[in-house]
Amino acid sequence: MTQTRIGVDLGGTKIEIAALSPEGEILLRWREATPRGDYAATLARIGQMVRTAEQQLGASATVGVATPGALTPGSGLMKNANSTWLNHMPLALDLQRELERPVRISNDANCFALSEARDGAGRGARVVFGVILGTGVGAGIVVEGQLLQGPNGIAGEWGHNPLPWLQAADLPLPRCYCGRAGCIETYISGPAWSAAYLAQQGVALECAQIAELADSGVCQAAAASLDLYLDRLARALAGVINLLDPDIIVLGGGLSKMACLYSRIPERWGAHVFSDCVVTQLMPPLHGDSSGVRGAAWLWDREDGPGRP
């Protein structure tokens, strides 16, 4: 496929759009606020942004959309989205009607993984596990350049598995919005880490502030908090290596900007990996916060039927 691709990243607070050339160059990119809680307005906003982009490009384009949650196979209804006004809605079908063309949709973590596997930090790797560490925790899997979705549409839903190898500090199990307790997301998402520090120290800090205090060497509480976070993330990723054995794990989301992750996590995960050595690489994203929208555009990298990446 040689034409221009448009990617849309539908987030809870912002909608981002970007157009890619056939070579992957970003031709345009901007963000607008998401009409929170308003499904019809969300559809209209995406339609308006795509039409504006095509006017600027002077040409029509394919459209791929990164979404929170996933499409339910069979019914095509959205599920598992923390942008709850999307759940149980036929988002793909409604966007195709709004835009009067086929639209391909996939989970935002899938799109992140696809972008980094296609021409990012995981380029050339056989198996790429792309992780989002932000307000939520998710992941996507790309095998030999192909996005793995699974028959239930939930491949890579790593954040809603239990944190492995529980320790005393991990108890009691924190409740998750999904209705379960002890999910990985409830320990290593940004809000979870900040909330745990507030509960322990009575001080409200952002994750970056905790990490900065820890690195300064002047705050033992922050250092202990960072150490526990690293231990939990290492355990969670070790479980992925034991199950999937990826060539490379790429971290995205706001927490991926902490440089200490890439040296200190691999030092720890070996204690939990069922192997005498671990050659899996842990890398930051090459495309940073543009990976999600780029991956949405790359959903049209192959001609295998509308609506399917």
What does it look like?
The structure is a single chain. By secondary structure, the chain is α/β, with parallel strands linked by helices. It folds into two domains: 5-108, ATPase, nucleotide binding domain (Nucleotidyltransferase, domain 5); 121-285, ATPase, nucleotide binding domain (Nucleotidyltransferase, domain 5), CATH 3.30.420.40. Helix content is 35%, strand content 19%. The strands form three sheets. Strands 3-2-1-4-7 form a five-stranded mixed beta sheet. Strand 11 (248-252), helix 8 (261-269) and strand 12 form a beta-alpha-beta unit. Helix 6 (207-216) packs across helix 7 (220-244) and helix 7 (220-244) packs across helix 8 (261-269). The longest helix has 25 residues, at 220-244.
